[in-house]
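dude i think i finally got it to work??
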Amino acid sequence: MADQMIFAWLAWVFPLLGAVLTPLFAAINKRVRDFMAVAFSFLAVVSTLSLTPLLLEGDVSWPLQSQVSWLNVEGSPILGQIKAGVLVDPLSIIMSNVVSIIAFLIMVYSIEYMKGEEGLTRYWFFMNLFIGNMLLLVLSDNLIQMLFGWEGVGLCSYGLIGFYYKDQRSGWLKYWVGEGDESYPPSHAGMKAFITTRIGDALLFVGAFIILAFTGTLNFVELQNGAITKVPFWALLPAVILLFGGPIGKSAQLPLMEWLPDAMAGPTTVSALIHAATMVKAGVYLVARMFPILYVVTLVSSSPDPQAMFYFIAWIGAITAFVAGAQATVSTEIKKVLAYSTVSQIGYMMLALGVAGLSVEFITGYVASIFHLVSHAMFKAALFLAAGSVIHATGSRFMRDMGGLKKHMPVTFWSMLFASCSLAGVPLVFSGFWSKDMILEASLVSGEYLLFVFGLLTVAITAFYTFRMVGMVFFGEGKSGSSDVGGHVNHLHEASPVMWVPYVVLVAGTIVLGVLGYFARHWMVSLFEYLVIVPSETHPTVVTEYIVAFLSSLAIVVGFIPAYWFYLKRSKPADMYTQRYPFLLKVRNFLYNRCYINRVYYCLIVYPTISLSKWMFSNLEVRVIDGFNYYLGRFTLSFSNWMFFNFESKVVDELNYRVSDLVKRTSLYFRRWQTGSLNDDLIMVLAGLFIIVLILKYLISAG
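look at this
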C-alpha cells in the first residue's frame, strides 16, 4: 500500500508538469505540443488507475495518508507545523479517476475540435493546469492544501471561459451566450464566473478559519477523529454555513448559480471538462469530504437542532434543482440547456448529502450523491462533447438553427439519445436511473416528504427539457445537407472519429454502469460502510425501492409526453398553447428571463457598482484625488522654487562660493612655499627630519 501512495502524488504532479512544459513543446513543434499535452493527461489516468486495486482489497484501514513537512512556524499555536499530504480513501479514489479519465477523453477530443484555433499553447497550458489543480484538490489531506487546488481551478476556469477573449462579433453564433439584454461576450462571462465564485470562496475561508481557531487543525483525518467536537455548536453552525458558501459558488447553487449558464462562452471542451464533469463537482466533493466530520457533531451535540446544517444543504440543493431545471425548459441554446441541467443535477447531489445528514442511516444518501456524481460526469460530458460536434457542424449554438440532424450525424444522434436517457433517468439500463432513484429513496427514508416531492417534480422537468433538446436538434425537417448560418455555409456531416470516439466511450460507460446499476449501488454502499458510526435498520426496503422506481418512472412519462408531442413528433407547435393561454406565456417569459435572478443581480450589484465606480471616478478620482495631486504638485513646485531662490541660491551656493574661495586662498598661501628651488626643497626636508627626531626623542623620554 505504501508503494501505491506515490501514485497519489504523481496523479496531480504529472499534469502540472505538462502545463509548465507546454510552452517548451510549442517552441519545438505544434504537433509535439498537442500530443504531449494529451500524453501528460494520460499519465494522470495511469496514476489514478493505479490506486483502484485498493478498492478491491478487503483489509484496507481507511483512510490512507502520506505526508511531508511543508511549513514550520515556531511559536505559533496554529501554524506550528503544516504538512503537505495526500489522502486516499474510496471517495478520493473514485473522484480522482472520474476527473482523470474524463479529462483525458476530452483532451483527445480537443485535438480535432480545437484544430486551427488561435492561442492553442494557452489552451493546452490551462487545460493541464486545471487537471493538475483538480486532482490536487481531490487528493489533499487538509483544507489548506486543498484550497491551493480550489483556487487553481478557479483561475483556470476564468482563463478558459474567456479563451475567445477578443469578443469578435463574428463569433456570435458560436461562443457568445444569451440574447438581447442578457447576451455576453466571452471576456465578460469569464470575469462573471471569476467574481461570483470568489464570493463563495471568501465565505469558505471565513468558515475554515473559524474551525481552525477552535481546533488548531484543518486536517480531514484529525477533524474526523474528534477535533471537530472542540468547536461549540453556536460557532460551528455559522462556520459550516459559511464553509458551504464555497460549494455554493463553485458548484453554481442558489443564490450563486447564474455564472454557470454564461460560462458556456468558453469552448465546448471547456464546458465538458470544467462545467459538467469536474470543477462544478468540487463543491459536492468538499461537502462529501466534510460530511462524516460534521455528522459526528449531530451525534454528540446537545444543541436542540444539531441537524440544522443538513437542512440548509438539502433545501439549497432541492430548490436549485427545481429552479435550474425549470429554466432549462425554455432555453434556446443547446449548451445552455446542458448548463442549466448541470446546475439542476448538482442540486440533486446536494439534496442527497443533506437528507443523508437528516437520517440515522446516512449511508444511502451519502452513496447516492457520489453515485450520481460519477453517473452525471459520464453522461453530461458525453452530452457536451456531442453538442460540440453539432455546433461544429451547424456553426450555431441556437437549437432553432438545428433540426433534422439525425440522418446527417447518426453516431452523434445515438450517442446523445442514450446519454439523454441517462440524464432523464430512463429505467433500467442507464446509470442515471439508479443514481437518481437512490437520491429519491434517501429523501423518502429520511422522512423529508416535501424534499421528495421537489425531487420528483424535477424528474418530470428533466425528462421534458432533455427530450425537447433531442427533438429540436435531431428531429423535424431541419437542413438538407448544409446549413447557411450567419452567411457561412456548413456542410452537415458526422464528426471525425477523433471527436466521436470519446463521447461514444462515455456513453458506453453510462450504459455499462446502468446495466450493472443494482450491483454497483450495493458495492458502493459496502465501500463506504467504514464510515457508519451507529448501525441502523432504517435503510430503504425493497418496497420503498419499488415505490420510488414507479413514481420516478411515472414522472419521466409525464415529462416525456409533451416533449414527444411538441418536439419529437411535432404534431402541433408548442407556441400555440402559450399564445392561447396568457398564463403559460407569462410563465414561459418568466423562465426565459432566468426567473429574473440574473437581472436582479445586475440591477442590485453590477449596475450600481458600475455607476458608483463612474461617480467615484468623476467625483473622487478626478475632483478629489487628482485635484489633491494637482495642488500637491503645484505646492511642491512652488516650494521647490522658494527653496531654490532662498536656500539653494542664497545659502548652499553662497556656502560653496565661500568654501571654494577659502580653499583658493589657502592654496595660494601654500604655493609660496613651493619655489621650485632644489636648495629650498632640501632645507624643508632637513627641517622635517629634525622635527621628527625631536618628536621621537620626546616620546622615548616620556616613556
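Residues 597-671 form the longest helix (75 residues).
im so relieved honestly
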